[in-house]
Amino acid sequence: MTSIDSNELVLNMGPQHPSTHGVLRIVLKLDGERVKSTECVIGYLHRGVEKIAENRTYVQFAPYVDRMDYLAAVSNGLGYCLAVEKLMAAVAPPRAQAVRVILTELNRIASHLLWLGTHALDIGAITPLFYTLREREEVLKIFENYCGARLTTHAFRIGGLQYELYEGFEQQVNTFCDQFPGKIDEYEELLSGNRIWRERLRGVGVIDAATCKRYGVTGPMLRAAGVPWDLRKAQPYSGYEQYEFDVPTRTGGDTLDRYFVRLDEMRQSVRIVRQAVAKIPTGPIMAKIAKVIKPPVGEAYVSIEAPKGELGYFIVSDGTTHPYRLRVRPPSFVNLQALPHMAKGALVADVVAIIGTIDIVLGEVDR
Predict the structure, then answer these.
(1) How far is residue 160's CA from residue 82's CA, in Å, rounded to a whole number?
(2) Structural domain that includes position 236
(3) 248-251-252 Cα angle (round to 5)
(4) What CATH number is associated with residue 304?
């Protein structure tokens, strides 16, 4: 932090503050209520996940990735499995790929639902949290029925899936897809036309496309700035090229546009899930790979479109059962870099809205 004059105040927001969404400490330099600069202090939840990978086998490390963005554990597991499979030149069977897409898109919906409920709560709207938790519960029931876990699912395995679909899976997923679009309309009735909501979000935390690219910002934040970049379209994986869906964008790049983009993304996820359920192929759920996984010497990077943006895994193999090096490119960490730019000149109350709209999980930021 630079030196301050007699008219400035340095204020700590967090790490105990509930609106910092975890253990994030933000040092604000204020001129009255106006933010002059911010400094993010992270590391309170650091667990050395990437170093742990070097001391675990590829299979043993798989559950650890669920503990990073614990609100999108399914996406974390998919990215990791794809990276190891790329090292091994293995491809999951079509049936496994379809199930992966279904569960990953349901996880995107669950992540966005919790974001919407907590973001609204930060702004002062209490009711949406109860609504969004109601629908999220239905998604978690599907996860629980499939793999026995609700949050840190460990749903996928290197090479495909461990569990075959349970009886009634397709019906339960279709029932959710039938009911959920109407629930999104309910959220819109509560918030989208609410004058207080719009005034609290419009023009707050603005970031344009060029600045997003400079900071490496991805996901809904980038698309709200007008850039239609989605790895499911740009670099398809797990058979996403088979599905028809749109990439929602807005042009304002403010907190309100990011809200609308995430609502639209949930609608598109329902479209993808419907298509995937309708054509789940028959066949095996695991590729033919060795029981002891020892990828050849080499390196691989795989990135996927996680709910918060580009989630990437870089793995270096030395031919043993343990990764020689593993590095994660977490979207929460990268997107958080843009907070000082977005908060400069805003009010203290706006900082709460901006943090919420970035949609960070500190387990992923700190790792």
Answers:
(1) 9
(2) 9-366
(3) 125
(4) 1.10.645.10
57 within some domain: yes
Number of domains in the chain: 1
Q: Rounded to whole angstroms, how far apart are CA atoms 149 and 33?
A: 44
* Tokens standing for residue 185: 């309309």
* pLDDT at 7 exceeding the cut of 80: no
pTM for this predicted structure: 0.91
With respect to residue 255, please indicate whether it lies within any of the assigned structural domains. yes
In a domain, 102, yes or no: yes
What is the pLDDT, as a whole number, of residue 3? 58
> What's the CA angle centered on 160, arms 231 and 135, to 5 degrees?
65
Give the model's confidence band at 6: pLDDT under 50 very low, under 70 low, under 90 confident, else very high: low
pLDDT score for 4:
53
Instruction: Find the distance separating the first CA and the last CA of the chain, reported in whole Å.
Output: 25
Could you tell me if residue 2 is inside a domain? no
Distance between CA atoms of 328 and 312, rounded to whole angstroms?
A: 6
Q: Among 16-20, 128-132, 282-286, which is the least confidently predicted range? A: 16-20
Q: Are 82 and 287 in contact (CB under 8 A)?
A: no
